[in-house]
Amino acid sequence: MDHEEKKNTNYINLNNQKVYFNIVGNGEPIVFLHGGPGSQHQFFLPHVLPLSKNYKLIFYDQTGCGQSETEKSGQYSMSMEVEVLELLRKKLCLTKMNLFGESWGSMLALLYATTYPERVNGLFLTAAIGVTAQGYKSFQKELMKRLSLKDKIRLFIFSFKKVNKDNERVLEVLDPYYVFSKESLQKKKVFKMNKVVKKKIIDDIVKNYDLTDKLFKLDQIPDMVAQGSHDILDPSKIKQLLIDYIPHAILVEINNAGHWTVVEKPQEIISIAKDFFSSSNC
């Protein structure tokens, strides 16, 4: 059966907010946490769908993102998003989950796992950022180093405008820097970024993201990080920002890939993730 035929999409009410989710396949659940902040679950599709042959894949748009309802008060935070994920787990009657976090989603996965360690089977992180705000700051610093002067000027102009079209132009400027090969850009779906969510969550990250005192809670949870060889935070940097803090975590380098490992090297990511989740669920 084609993977798309097994798809079920729906809305679920979590804390009086409509959250859009999508379930594909059967088996042990893997919950996918998209990046951004402010992006949506479509980033993962169709690239990870072959995993649905062995697992139940659960995708959702975080609060205010994609097709999910915006937060009524206009406030967004890391802790709120952790609780949304916990409510999703309860509503879907999942005892434990495997988490697949990409970019900001890798941080959300770590936040959730250090809050509810008993609910996590395994953590698979890619395009990882780190365990403190220093990871995000380093990411921004390295990204700015890569930008041409022309693109820095364009980014400055577009970032301060409030029109949706200019939001899309920001992505046009940045996207080529997230890949190893610009041909990979054709494989990424076009979607909108919620600028309000992005700003609120990033402000929270810069001020409050520090898991160093909670990482002991991950001692019994298998962790794997699959980082692109040419990611903005390459494997050597992510070793300092994440792996050195979690000694049992396994670091795998994805050759000839940038920040979008899922888009550029889907078969390799699928193979590694499949092996990892099958062993972490033994």
From TrEMBL:
Domain AB hydrolase-1: 29-266
GO terms of molecular function: hydrolase activity
Top-level taxonomic group: Bacteria
Protein's UniProt keywords contain Hydrolase: yes
SUPFAM superfamilies the UniProt entry points to: alpha/beta-Hydrolases
Keyword Mitochondrion attributed: no
Signal peptide segment: none
Keywords: Hydrolase
Homology family: Belongs to the peptidase S33 family.
Protein name stated in the entry: Alpha/beta fold hydrolase
Native organism: Sporosarcina contaminans
